[in-house]
Amino acid sequence: MDRSKFLIKLLLHLSLSVVLFSSCISAQLRLNYYANTCPDVERIVRTTVRAKFTQTFVTVPATLRLFFHDCFVSGCDASVIVASTPGNTADKDHPDNLSLAGDGFDTMIKAKAAVDKVARCKNRVSCADILALATRDVIVLAGGPSYAVELGRLDGLSSTTRSVDGNLPQPTFNLNQLNSMFASTGLSQGDMIALSAAHTLGFSHCNKFSNRIFNFNRTHPIDPTLNRRYATQLQGMCPRNVDPRIAIDMDPTTPTAFDNAYYKNLQNGMGLFTSDQVLFTDSRSRPTVNTWASNSKAFNDAFIQAMTKLGRVGVKTGRNGNIRFDCGRFN
């Protein structure tokens, strides 16, 4: 057998293994998981999230991003919420997670407290499930689609910076790199394109894309795939040597609405990251971008499916997890 055929068979085997493993894990997740232990958990979390949302819109992108960063590293087990200790540097203190907004963590603290305030619910609902519910709720508050959330996750027993290394998509990724990373969690290219639309909300620090507007390469100081007018606006908001704490909207048109404007922006060369704009510049993903730019229902349906699949990644069961008394530290 030549090398190319061997590699193809190996990739097919690995992909099948991921699918089978995900199927086994998702079997333990179900709707109304807490029907007999904490039947009002969804209402409790929703009420808490709505109250936090009235204080600051940042609740929305902060919670959504917290869920993504959690699930991509060791699975959806709330490990990203655990605080570091003198003997361990946790997920949240990895360089890739330092920009996670505090409002996401605060949303979790408040939701956990509200759930545990109900006697029959106290220490019966995992932090991982609370985060999954809160994520759905912030999407709805921003005008996005509602969907049923599968529940039954346990909280992880480990959280280290080492586990984050190489497991989060980077803003400089090309399509092959994006597909490879998402495939490692059982997600397809379509899932990746749908989930990327989370960038219709939230903010980015200037250093995440400054190379695209000042020193892209020797012949093009500005990334040629970037809309020139938009590039000029970005240079104004993020000049050289800008304060590293400065952040700008990721969606320049509807930054506080969860919608399909993300894809329309890509069509106009207004994707903030290389990993955003490549979805349109690469002919393999462009048709999907064009479809969802003109069909919000098709996008919403795809996003719901992708979020459900993401929520099944790395779910902890049995002795591999527990229900934390405090989301920020291990029992």
Strand fraction equals: under 5%
Distance between the termini: 51 Å
The overall average pLDDT, rounded, is 93
The quaternary structure here is single chain
Shape: globular
Spatial sequence of strands, sheet with the most strands:
1-4
Q: How many DSSP helices?
A: 13
> Strand tally, please?
4
Range of helix content: 40-55%
Largest sheet: 2 strands, antiparallel
The helix-and-strand class reads mainly alpha
Radius of gyration: 20 Å
Low-confidence stretches: 14-24
Order of helices and strands: HHHHHEHHEHHEHHHHE
Structure overview:
The chain is mainly α and 331 residues long. It has helices at 3-26, 41-55, 59-72, 102-116, 127-141, 175-183, 189-196, 210-214, 228-237, 261-267, 274-281, 286-294, 296-310, and strands spanning 155-156, 203-205, 247-249, 321-322. A two-stranded antiparallel sheet has the order 1-4. It has a two-stranded antiparallel ribbon with strand order 2-3. It is globular and about 65 Å long. The N and C termini lie far apart (51 Å). Mean pLDDT is 93; it is low at 14-24.
Q: Main attributes?
A:
single chain, 331 residues, 4 strands, two-stranded antiparallel sheet
Write a compact overview of the structure shown:
By secondary structure, the chain is mostly helical.
Question: Helices and strands in order, then pairings?
Answer:
Layout: H1 3-26, H2 41-55, H3 59-72, H4 102-116, H5 127-141, E1 155-156, H6 175-183, H7 189-196, E2 203-205, H8 210-214, H9 228-237, E3 247-249, H10 261-267, H11 274-281, H12 286-294, H13 296-310, E4 321-322
Antiparallel strand pairs: 1-4, 2-3
Helix pairs in contact: 2-4, 2-5, 3-4, 3-5, 4-5, 7-13, 10-12, 12-13
